[in-house]
Amino acid sequence: AGPGQAAMYAGLQELGVANGEDLKETLTNCTEPLKAIEQFQTENGVLLPSLQSALPFLDLHGTPRLEFHQSVFDELREKLLERVSAIALEGKVEERYKKLEDLLEKSFSLVKMPSIQPVVMCVMKHLPKVPEKKLKLVMADKDLYKACAVEVKRQIWQDNQALFGDEVSPLLKQYILEKENILFSNDISVLHNFFSPSPKTRRQGEVVQKLTQMIGKNVKLYDMVLQFLRTLFLRTRNVHYCTLRAELLMSLHDLEISEICTVDPCHKFTWCLDACIREKFVDNKRARELQGFLDGVKKGQEQVLGDLSMILCDPFAINTLALSTIRHLQDLVGQDTLPRESPDLLLLLRMLSLGQGAWDMIDSQVFKEPKMEAELITKFLPMLMSFVVDDYTFNVDQKLPSEEKGPVPYPSTIPEAFIKFLQENRIACEIGLYYILHITKQRNKNAFLRLLPALVETFSDLAFSDIFLHLLTGNLTLLGDEFALEEFCTSLFDGFFLTACSRKENVHRHVLRLLLHLHHKVAPAKLESLQKTLEPTKQSGEAVKELYNQLTEKLELRKPSPAEVTETPSMELPLPTVPTPASR
To answer: Region entry Disordered: which residue ranges (predicted)?
Structure first.
């Protein structure tokens, strides 16, 4: 018998049951092998008197004994598995678990025997507390650990953070990768972007579902995952970990796992914010609720602010708060009201400020709300409102009958203070960027070109962050026709994108994404110079090279064929890059 055979009989000897080794021993030391086999069969067969006379019938039909015993065994195993699951639900709690513990004690020595293993695993699965000694044996054996149910693994994990970390780590990596793939997706659209999926849809994602299952109702494991997320957020500053923090809590909320939801102090706040994210707007009723939670943080419990700030730092939360802020500012213009007179607006700023301050708060462990700079409210927001007013007055001017003085030009200068705010104040920068996304979405080319120069230098390079560039490239598709104008392209590419392309690989990628989508609209001469400028260097990553190759292929396809070129009347400068209508 090889090692495979040995595994088949693992543990039978300890129970006093004869196995293959015993039969081998008997046959080696006997004089009459057939008699010995018959005796072995009698002693170890199914001990049912009525069966003895029936077995010869099977022999007549040519059914091997192995097949018969195997089918009886399978049948009995199914019955036993059903019985174990039934015991786990019946009678008094102590009694049922006592029965299961006894059963485990008797059967555990057979845990490595493949045919019996499912029964042992099933018993362990139904025990809320598997004896420590057994857990250690399972943990020490890779194959057993792999085979046991998640209910048993949870019991192992809760006292082995490192092992649990090894299981969770690849999932977290996968999650971040999935987010980045969406941000860099080749499908650029204003309708389907990073923020399009509803919270409920996002929670159905593979990683969130797996983590939810791994945690079950175990508060200790939930806390461990939160600790991993905090640590990774601190180490990488990657805000997608904040999204996962909120999604995980809401996934447990969907399953009504009160054991965890009731002990997470952020539960009700996250639930309310989740509804706002779903609507992409913070309405007055929910604003009051959210304010109630923030005002309700008691002395001595300030640490909860660290968790709340992480929930508010989720890009989906920031997106909702920023969109709501822009909407409020527009309403205030119509109402002739100043920002400082709007409690709803002040609350949005308070939450934005808390979210944007998450990293600093968790890093410093100083749990108090960041102080809001008065100038943000008294100077910066009124300045944004004045831009809205500029648009209104310009539009009205356009409609008035023009007098001798000629058309009124669109204001082209930006206040110095605006540029300074975007460089020095994080909240101002975030709101300013969302205002620029807003005017781009409205196809307001004038306002876009006016404010674009302010984006070259922003607070912590926020204008070159993936989320902003993902949204901007999507919104720019609405201004597609403007790309035929040299002046527009120069402002956008030379004046903004190319200022960061060489030092920031992600910007290089976003520009290539945009050109892949809009190359047929770009002024030909501009396209040619962009193609040269954007050529990858030796240091460029694979993603940039791949995108550049895709773009080159597309442009090759658009070039007219040599035959067409020779037929065109010669000009001083041949321009082979000008697309002919046929090749569009």
So the answer is: 558-584
